[in-house]
Specification:
globular, single chain, Glucose Permease (Domain IIA), 267 residues, three-stranded antiparallel beta sheet, alpha+beta, 4 helices
Length: 267
């Protein structure tokens, strides 16, 4: 090794080591800043949701009057679900040879491609609204079966997809539902969001969990701003409360409202 090489080599090692240390510190600082910013954003969003829930608890008597005003078209809904399960493009053609009007044998049509959803959804679920009042529960109502939950809130509240999936319907052509979105999550599970003031997705769109798909409204058969929300396994409606997580925000807001009422009564 030449004399100048022997002198420079240790210096180069020290310089490289210092650069690595500076880079590590920079990455650490960036990671820390991102974590702090994310935590702050989440905390702010949670705080806003709690405050909104407190507002809704104070207006609960009014919000409880916002629900479905009549029947929804079960026939139209089942038609959409059946078509989606057959695959994109509609009804699959029967197998075998088909005679064309000219007497020639037509080639059998290829069945439509299946929806790009998993066989069975394995992730978690979330509520379609961050803040709401359940104005009508799943089950027997007015002598008939209510096949979902009615979630009342201010008009214009964002409505979110409860899980990732494929939009199989987005429109206002189903009697009673108003502006409605239906999302297919796996081969059997779907979620439905009705009475919206505006839709943010189109049929065929892929949505991720928590993506805004609509704005809450009062369209269709409705007495006031709310979302009629359903979950189905195949054709069968499921009580959303049995599969959705418990809402800690709603509980916190309700406790806060109860504390304020107690304090007011004591004064």
């Amino acid at each position: 090794m030449r004399h100048w090489q022997r002198i420079l080599a240790p210096a180069m090692v020290i310089t490289v080591a210092n650069c690595a240390s500076l880079n590590d510190n920079k990455v650490y600082q960036q990671t820390r800043d991102f974590s702090v910013k994310t935590a702050t954003t989440v905390a702010d969003a949670t705080s806003k949701t709690v405050e909104k829930m407190k507002h809704y608890m104070a207006e609960k008597d009014v919000l409880m009057t916002f629900h479905d005003a009549g029947e929804h078209s079960e026939t139209a809904l089942l038609g959409v679900l059946h078509q989606a399960r057959l695959g994109k493009g509609g009804t699959a053609a029967p197998s075998g040879k088909n005679a064309s009007p000219g007497g020639q044998t037509a080639k059998p049509k290829q069945p439509p491609a299946p929806l790009p959803v998993p066989e069975q959804y394995a992730g978690s679920l979330r509520w379609p609204l961050d803040a709401y009042i359940v104005s009508s529960e799943y089950g027997e109502r007015w002598g008939k079966m209510h096949k979902g939950l009615d979630l009342a809130a201010d008009a214009g509240e964002p409505v979110y997809a409860i899980a990732s999936g494929e939009v199989i319907y987005a429109g206002d052509g189903m009697r009673g539902y108003g502006n409605v979105v239906i999302v297919q999550h796996d081969r059997q599970m779907t979620s439905l969001y009705a009475h919206n003031s505006a839709l943010k997705v189109h049929k065929g769109d892929h949505v991720s969990q928590g993506m805004q798909i609509a704005l809450l409204g009062n369209t269709g058969h409705s007495t006031g701003p709310h979302v009629h929300f359903e979950i189905r396994e195949g054709d069968t409606p499921v009580n959303p409360r049995t599969v959705l997580p418990k809402s800690n925000v709603a509980e916190a807001a309700e406790k806060g409202a109860q504390v304020r009422v107690a304090e007011h009564s004591a004064q």
